Write the structure tokens for this entry.
Amino acid sequence: MNPDQQPLTKQDLREALDAALQPLIARQDAITHNLTDLRRELTQLLERIDNRTERTDISVSGLLMQAAGINKSLSGLERSESVTITQAAQQRAIDGLYAQLAELKRRLLPPQ
């Protein structure tokens, strides 16, 4: 301290401390404001994601119900195809037996 300066009073110290703290308080207020804005934006984003997830869940449920119906239809078609194949095989067997019977008949009975 210079001999011509007076000692600092408590009031002088308080004023100097308040002046030094003002920029820090302003920064803290700005950070608080930014964090509040960020929180609001994140909340909105999470709400949109939640809504999309719900809509996706509804869509997937609908697709699963459609898939179940398609599977049921395919099972019916497979059974129908199996029956058709069986009937075709039976018809070929009948035709073969008929041809054999006709051949036997031709051999056993002379032409008249």
Notes: The longest helix spans residues 10-108. The chain is about 90% helix and 0% strand. Helices lie at 10-108. The mean pLDDT is 88.
